[in-house]
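Worked example 2:
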Amino acid sequence: MNRVTITFPVENISVEKLLNWAKRYDVFTLLNSNSHSNNQTDNYSNFDVLLAVDPVEIFMYEDLFHALKFISDSNDWYILHLSYDLKNKIETLSSTNPDKINFPEFIIYRPAVVFEIREKKLFVHYIQEKYSPEEINLFIEQIKVQEPDQSTKGTEIRIDQRLSRDEYISEINEIKKHIQRGDIYEMNYCQEFYSEHATIDPFQTYLDLNEISPMPFSVFSKYNEHFLMCASPERYLAKRGQKIISQPIKGTARRDSNPEEDKLIAERLFHDEKERSENVMIVDLVRNDLSRTAKKGSVKVEELFGIKTFVQLHQMISTVTSELAEGNNISDLIRTTFPMGSMTGAPKIRAMEIIEVTEKSKRGLYSGTVGYLSPNGDFDLNVVIRSILYNSEKKYLSFTVGSAITIGAAAEKEYDECLLKAEAMKKVLLKK
């Protein structure tokens, strides 16, 4: 299949209009950088917005790594959704916790049409065996005249937690016993917030979430009855030429409306010994993971303890890079780095074993990744955090938050950090 590109002015094209137009498809994905590339929060972003629709090829039931090898050689656009529980295909692990979202373990698809906004232009990459230039021009005209859709109304919902405060604290104390015994040094522990019998408008929910939390790795994805509304600040893995980039996050602090106090909060986060300890442990893990596919001596820490400021939070983000060794591709990279260290712990395998015992629900797509592979072999994959997952058929809604647990962790503070991370999702869902 041959893909060609038509360029359009970007006037009268917005994320909301693209989403409203894309509703006609059962499967599509929107990736939104929220212009973080323009304000230098993200130095590696390649576009402002990417919308992929109308799959002509879907990989779901094949061997994941065979599929990844295939797409790496095909020189075309692909969208990837990889769930956390693919760990069971990489390591000798299992998952028995309940999963009520039931998002597929992985979905990789080749879209017939990709809308890419960058450099104040709209590039439409389409398969010419599927669409004509006239049809693409018609799509653009349809998008321009889209109006907000008020047809789907949500209902008032109740959000419950899998763990009470006391149960959460008890589990943290159990994890710290593992740390004291030397089983692990650090572990990312997560808890699920959920709502049953929930009716929401996923499209409006995403727009509301993105308005209050405009993150560089924002995603809206629809796969039949499965929806992802994601406001992620974290990059799992990217490739630019032969350069590989990973940017783990460990360290979170609330913003303050007073500019002077806000600056002090950011400075305190930078100097916080606990946050630095957590961050450097994961940086070391990422360095080790990347070294398995890197040219000898090419793994570098470009930035350690970088403080990035977003609308609601300050985050401590480090940047680790490498140069990809000849003969390695996206399949090798994911096999040796997934799941990401920031969402597991150190040592990674033992941490994942303890996660399965202490957490009360299956993570699924949460702490997995969504992103794209481009025809030139570059890719960008996020970490699925700060996200709402919704199964419209089961009317089940879920979002999960977590924090890093080390020997110095205070269970009460970790619980409060989880509530802080949950605020944006709760605010959107409860309309408060």
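Residues 411-430 form the longest helix (20 residues). The chain has one domain: 3-430.
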